[in-house]
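My current task is to audit a protein record that another person submitted. Alongside the sequence sits a line of tokens, each denoting a local backbone shape. Where you disagree with what is written, explain briefly why. This is what I was given:
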Amino acid sequence: MSTKKTLILNKEQIKQKSLRIAYQIIEDNFDEPSFALVGIAERGYFFAQRLQKILQEIAPEKQIDLLKVSVVKNKRSLEAKTDQPIESVKNKVIILVDDVLNSGRTLAYGLGAFIDVPLKKMRTAVLIDRSHHKFPIFSDYYGLKLSTILKEHVEVVLEEFDNEEDAAYLI
């Protein structure tokens, strides 16, 4: 049985979507001198690094921190850790970043890592939102909203992580 891969975003389209997301983040946080991007390991963190780079180019006056949050997705209880002290985002705006939003479980677990930290505001950014939400988690900033059937899978390839040209496929 062959696996059919359908290209849904090419390298140039991913670049354009990333730039649009970055501008939306700046517009939504215009009055904030600083905020933090929190990338969900692994691809979400690499996507957050990209967004940070774009944001620093278009808004060099802003301080944009970057954190990585690692979550254990196959447990029924929250298990998440950050690569920096979680208190570093206290009273800040944070944007939780992942590559694909499917059921919302991963973003919910990522959000849970910050539940005891007072924040100004929390937003979510994803490259692709599949709209199969089981959790009340929605994307504030997204590159593409894609209606798929549950059996289909979205695979995002990021050059920095996969050593292949950027692309997103429907499988």
The domain at 33-148 is CATH 3.40.50.2020 (Rossmann fold). Residues 11-28 form the longest helix (18 residues).
